[in-house]
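Table 4 source record.
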Amino acid sequence: MMKEHSFSALDRHAVLTGAGSDDGYPWYASGMLALEASEVVRLRLEKFAHGDVDCEHEACLMVTEKVFAAFEAAASLFAGASIGSIVDRYRAHVADNVKRLKLARAGC
């Protein structure tokens, strides 16, 4: 089994050096979110291109997840959560999707 790449060393570097934290916006975490989300896009497009049996379910799930994530982010923001914690929560959702899609691709 191939070991999945982890960005934890990069995350530690950003925290220790304060990379991108000069104005309070989590630039590094947002950039990592964009990179990590591109993997979900790739896996979903691969699934759609292969015409897997559950393509329609995946498309519906994709839209539903985005709506719920937007509501969750808005509720967190109104409750006083920081932008960084909201980005971190999105990253957790993205990581869950990558795991699920890779398991589905492997046939597990």
